[in-house]
Design goal:
It is a single chain. Helices cover about 45% and strands about 15% of the residues. It has a two-stranded antiparallel sheet with strand order 1-2. Strands 3-4 form a two-stranded antiparallel ribbon. It is globular.
Length: about 100
Amino acid sequence: MREKREVVADYLPELNKAVEQLVTRPEIHSLVDTLKKQLQQTSDPFVWSTIDLQSVMVQLPRRIRSCWIFVLKKDVPARLSMTLTVASPVNIGSFRFR
């Protein structure tokens, strides 16, 4: 498990750059707003959407094959949110970088 964490840590700076670029785009803010609306209409603890990798304007690690954005309900149990943040460098709700 430690080896896997080190690998993720190796490319976390690249992921942070990608997120920094994505959160400046109006279409990402619009997507988050849409997901927030969807979240209010479901009993599920979260909603999500994919982001086209071709739209990411920075070089991503070759291991990255998809890009997802999740919006979680407030107070989602830790056991669920931990599974969603394996390689997630940003808290979409507040745009805080880790």
